[in-house]
Amino acid sequence: MKRFAMTALLLGACAMPAFAADKATAAALAKGAATLADQGKSDKAKEMCFKALANDSDCPEALYELGKVFEKEGNNTAAGDFLVRAAQQLGMEETANPDFAKKRKDAEIRAQKLNPFSGQLSAAFAEYSEALNGIVKKVPDSLTLEEACDRADQLKLKAMVPPEKAPKFERPVVKAPEKAMTARERAIAEITGTRMKSDTPTVVPPDVERVLKDPQKGGWEKITGSWKKKAENIYEVTDGKLETEKINGAVMCIVHKEGTTGKVKIMVRNDSSESDFFVSSSSGYGIHYDRDGTKFYTPSNSFSGRFYSYLERTDPAPATPKVQYMVLVEEGKLDYQVNGVSKKKTGSLQISKNGPMVIMVEGTAIIEMPRAAGK
C-alpha cells in the first residue's frame, strides 16, 4: 500500500514540468532530508524527499536519499528502483556538479548489490547507445537520424546511460517553408535578373541525401531546395544549395547544359559579409555558370586594404554538352579549373577564412557529382 502511494505521488509529480525555482526548492528539501536521514529520522527524511520530488520529479539528490533510506529499511525493491533512477539523474548532471560523480558511483554500487542484473542491463543500454552513435555518424541523413532519435526516446537512453556514452545526436529541425515572393518582389527580380528569395520548399529524397552527405561521395553537411535524382550522381535541382564548413580543399560539380536554365555557383570562402558595394561583387570566390557563360569571381584589393570578391571576367562556356567546374583553395591560394584545365591561379593572398564551401543553384539546373573535399 505504501509503495502504491509513493508511486502515485511520483506520477503526480511527473505530470508537471519543473522550473528553475522548483528545482532549487527540491534541492534544498533533499539536503534537509539527507540531514534527517543521518540523524536516523527515516520517516521525516522520506516525507521531505517526496516533497522535493513533488517540486522536481527528477531531483537526483532526493532519489538518492530515498534509495538509501529504503535500503536501510530492507525494502530492496523500492531501494533498487530509486537508486537506479538516482544514478541516471546524477550522471546527467555531474558535469555541472562534480560532487554528483561520487554519489552516482555509490548509487550504482548499491543498486548492483540489490539487483546483480542491473549492471548487465545498464551495460546493454550503453552498448546500444554507442552503436546508434556510430550509425548516425556513418549515415547522417535525416531518415536515419529520425529513426535513431525514435529508438533513443523509446528506451530513454539519455537518462539510462552515463553522459559519455549517451546519444550524441539530436532530432533534425524541420525548417518552416519560406514566405513566397510578392508580386512587387517578383517584378524587381525580373528587372534586376536576381532571385530575391526562393519559393521552392526543401525536398531531398533520403537516398539522395545519403549520397550527398556521405564523406566519400558528397561531403556536404547542409542541403536545401528541391532535388530529384535523374541517374547515378546526376540531379535536377531547383533553387538548391549545398554547404559544408570546410576552409581548405576543393569543390566541384559537372553542369549539364541541356536542362539547365538557371545559374550554378561553385564557391569557396562564401562569406556574404566580405562582399563590397559594387554590383560586380559576390560573396566568396569561385565560378558562376549561366547562359551568358562562365564568370570568374576572384580576389580584388579594395581601398580599405581588404580583399573582396569581384567579377574579373566572363568566358564563353566550353562547347561540350557537360562542363566540369572546380575551385581549389589552400590558405590564400586559389585555383579555378574548367574541364580539368586551370583558367586562373592566384598567389598567396590575405583573403578571408570565413564562410563555407557551397554549390548554389538559382532556378533549375542539371548537375552531376557535386563534391566537396578538404577540411
Could you walk me through the main structural features you see in this protein, from its secondary elements to its overall organization?
- With 375 residues, this protein is of the alpha+beta class.
- It has three domains: 2-115, Alpha Horseshoe (Serine Threonine Protein Phosphatase 5, Tetratricopeptide repeat); 121-165, no CATH class; 202-374, Jelly Rolls (Sandwich).
- It has eleven helices and 13 strands.
- It has helices at 2-14, 20-38, 42-55, 60-73, 76-93, 99-114, 117-138, 142-155, 157-160, 183-192, 206-213; strands at residues 222-231, 234-244, 249-256, 263-268, 281-282, 285-290, 293-301, 307-315, 322-330, 333-338, 341-345, 357-362, 364-374.
- Strands 1, 2, 3, 4, 5, 6, 7, 8, 9, 10, 11, 12 and 13 form a 13-stranded antiparallel beta sheet that branches.
- A hairpin with a 2-residue loop joins strand 9 (322-330) and strand 10.
- It is elongated.
- The model is unreliable at 1-16, 190-197 and 275-279 (pLDDT under 50).
Oligomer: single chain
Q: CA-to-CA gap between the ends? A: 62 Å
Alpha-carbon Rg, integer: 29 Å
Q: Could you give the order of the helices and strands?
A: HHHHHHHHHHHEEEEEEEEEEEEE
> What shape does the CA trace take?
elongated
- Which CATH C-level class of the largest domain is it? Mainly Beta
Q: How many extended strands?
A: 13
Q: What's the CATH architecture name of the largest domain?
A: Sandwich
Helix content: 40-55%
**Overall pLDDT score:** 83
